[in-house]
Design goal:
The structure holds two protein chains of two kinds. Chain A is an all-beta fold. Chain A contains no helices and eleven strands. Helix content of chain A is 0%, strand content 59%. Chain B is mainly beta. The chains are: A mainly beta, B mainly beta.
C-alpha cells in the first residue's frame, strides 16, 4: 500500500528559527495535507494542497506540493513556543466509492528550546 | 463552534469490560472515520462509514465494532478491551469525494 516517509523525525530548535520538514512517497498523491497535533488533542488541518507545484501559505506556514506529486514540504518561519507539537503529512486513499481514509507520515516532533 | 465532538475525552475501563466511545458532528459530512493512535505513532484507520455503509479495514480486530444511527453520530464499541487497546481514539469526518478530513479532540482510553 501507499507509504509516506516523513523527515526529520524530530527537531530541536531555538525560538525564532525557521523550520522545514518534508514528506515523500513512492506513489502519486492527488492531494497533500499537513496537520498539527498538540499533546492530548486531535490533529488540526493546517494546509491542504491540491495541485502539483502549488505553493500555499497560512500565516507563518508555507507548504508546497511537489511537481512529481510524490513529495511535499512544510516550512514554518520565525518559530514561536506555540508551534511545539507533532506535524503530520497525509494523503487520501481512494476506492471506487470515494475517499477511503488518510495515509499518514510518521510525524515530525517539533521541540523549541528556550 | 465545535464541529467534531468526542465524548468522553478520557475513558478508563477494566480488562474485558465493554466500552463505547461517542462522536458527533455538526458539519453534515456523509463520511465518518475512526482512527486508533498509539503513543508516538501516526493515526491508523479502523473503519469508516459512507452514510450508513460500513467499511472495515482488513486488519481491524473483530473486537472493534461501530454503529452510525444517523448522519450526526457514530459510535465505537470495543467488546472486550485488552491492554493493547489502550490508545487515543480519533473520530474524523469528511465529504465522500473530498480529501480533507476534520478530526475531533480524541478520547484517551486506559485499560486497567
Amino acid at each position: 500500500g501507499q507509504q509516506l516517509n516523513q523527515s526529520p523525525q524530530s527537531m530541536f530548535i531555538q525560538e525564532g528559527e525557521d523550520v522545514s520538514m518534508n514528506c515523500t512517497s513512492s506513489s502519486i498523491f492527488n492531494t497533500w495535507l499537513w496537520y498539527k497535533q498538540d499533546p492530548g488533542e486531535g490533529p488540526v488541518l493546517l494546509i491542504a494542497l491540491y495541485k502539483a507545484g502549488e505553493l500555499t501559505s497560512n500565516g507563518r506556514l508555507t507548504a508546497q506540493f511537489g511537481i512529481t506529486r510524490k513529495d511535499s514540504f512544510l516550512n514554518i518561519s520565525a518559530s514561536i513556543p506555540s508551534d511545539v507539537g507533532i506535524y503530520f503529512c497525509a494523503g487520501p486513499r481512494y476506492s471506487g466509492g470515494g475517499a477511503d481514509g488518510l495515509t499518514f507520515g510518521k510525524g515530525t516532533h517539533l521541540i523549541i528550546q528556550p | 463552534d465545535a464541529m467534531v465532538i468526542q465524548n468522553p475525552r478520557y475513558q478508563v475501563t477494566q480488562f474485558g469490560k465493554p466500552v463505547t466511545l461517542s462522536c458527533s458532528q455538526t458539519l453534515n459530512h456523509n463520511v465518518m472515520y475512526w482512527y486508533q493512535q498509539k503513543s508516538s505513532q501516526a493515526p491508523k484507520l479502523l473503519f469508516h462509514y459512507y452514510d450508513k455503509d460500513f467499511n472495515n479495514e482488513a486488519d481491524t480486530p473483530d473486537n472493534f465494532q461501530s454503529r452510525r444511527p444517523n448522519t450526526s453520530f457514530c459510535f465505537l464499541d470495543i467488546r472486550s478491551p485488552g491492554l493493547g487497546d489502550a490508545a487515543m481514539y480519533l473520530c474524523a469526518t469528511g465529504g465522500r469525494f473530498t480529501d480533507t478530513q476534520y478530526f475531533g479532540p480524541g478520547t484517551r482510553l486506559t485499560v486497567l
